[in-house]
UniProtKB/TrEMBL annotation:
InterPro entries: Homeodomain-like_sf (IPR009057), HTH-type_TetR-like_transc_reg (IPR050109), HTH_TetR (IPR001647), MT1864/Rv1816-like_C (IPR025996), Tet_transcr_reg_TetR-rel_C_sf (IPR036271). Residues 41-60 bind DNA. GO terms for molecular function: DNA-binding transcription factor activity; transcription cis-regulatory region binding. Residues 17-78 form the HTH tetR-type domain. Gene3D superfamilies: Tetracycline Repressor, domain 2. The lineage of its organism: Bacteria, Bacillati, Actinomycetota, Actinomycetes, Mycobacteriales. Pfam families: TetR_C_33 (PF13305), TetR_N (PF00440). This is TetR family transcriptional regulator. Keywords: DNA-binding, Transcription, Transcription regulation. It comes from the Bacteria.
Amino acid sequence: MSGTSAKPTRRSTYRHGALRDALLDAGVAMAREGGGPQAIVLREAARRAGVAPNAAYTHFKDRDALVQAVARVALSRLAAAMLAEQDAITGADAARARFRAVGAGYLRFARDEPGLFRTAFATQRDVSAVAEPAAGPTGRSAIEILGDALDGLVAAGLLPPERRPGAEFLAWPTVHGLACLVVEGPLRFLAADQFDGLTTQLLDMIDRGI
């Protein structure tokens, strides 16, 4: 055995679409391992997929295209994390619990997947970019899941209808701000129990404010 690291087996053929998926999987892995979009390199994705660098350009015209694709995957996984938090709800007061679960899932994803969380918003220029192309397993994106939860508060009589318009853009920035502080700011050193306590306090504040 030599001391050199093993290289991936080079492949000359892929089923239709399989190479794109392999390159995208490699990009996702790099974002997770390297802490964000700066770690995504198209040539390295090709190396991991076992193809020549030129083959990658068949599916991604440049590095930015791969970063954008990874960002959509990250946003989809963010939506899935929020839905998973909602799926765990039991007991009464479901509308309020589903609303709070949106924020809890968002924050938990940021803490558990900091590289993907950073990547999720790396290429997004307006709110339309975080909607349909980045839908989760139910076909609803993170912003749509939040909107659904707010609509649920209205239906349950917990949020006056006249206060519903634009409520997404009050709750979302508040949760996102804490997520950023936890991922790359002065709160990144919080212990798990401290993070959970702060999450509860923040959601209480948003609940009261909404």
